[in-house]
Amino acid sequence: xxxxxxxxxxxxxxxxxxxxxxxxxxxxxxxxxxxxxxxxxxxxxxxxxxxxxxxxxxxxxxxxxxxxxxxxxxxxxxxxxxxxxxxxxxxxxxxxxxxxxxxxxxxxxxxxxxxxxxxxxxxxxxxxxxxxxxxxxxxxxxxxxxxxxxxxxxxxxxxxxxxxxxxxxxxxxxxxxxxxxxxxxxxxxxxxxxxxxxxxxxxxxxxxxxxx
Length: 212
Hints:
Strand content: 35-45%
CATH topology: Protein Transport Mog1p, Chain A
Distance between the termini: 62 Å
Order of helices and strands: HHEEEEHEEHEEEEHE
CATH class: Alpha Beta
Shape: globular
Structural class: alpha+beta
Helix content: 10-25%
Number of domains: 1
Number of helices: 5
Radius of gyration: 17 Å
């Protein structure tokens, strides 16, 4: 599979889980809706920062940012219920060709109110798992708690043989400020994916002030 084909497969296998979840969950008890479109964050000197969601991602040296190009046809920044692509970066330009896994990082956010009945991040993995399995990936690890610093997320791991190589994919999910935020990492090995995940960091959250 070419790098371009892998990039297209990766993007469409991860981002559109909303439709499946909305179809499968009940129409009551939805999470509090987000009031406005999410902050798109800023990428400077290979470091992406999103102060609204309180995280930073340091891209490996030489990676290419394709967030704007991939966002043009996939989101509506004026509609908070639409999935918003916050970051899409690749080890090599996705338009290039090759026979190796093009490592990638994609971060997306969507209003939790788009998912009726969703109460926690683990529920997101129901339709997401069915979706990636339909694209030929297999489950390596069922969703499990994953801590990045003081931030608690839910993580699922997947893989798919691609000729002589294997694509490894991990997706981390959290609920924050009325949004579902997903972080997806792709690499040519589990160790590479783990290394990409380690570049994700969160701002320390101050404990609430005691009531007087």
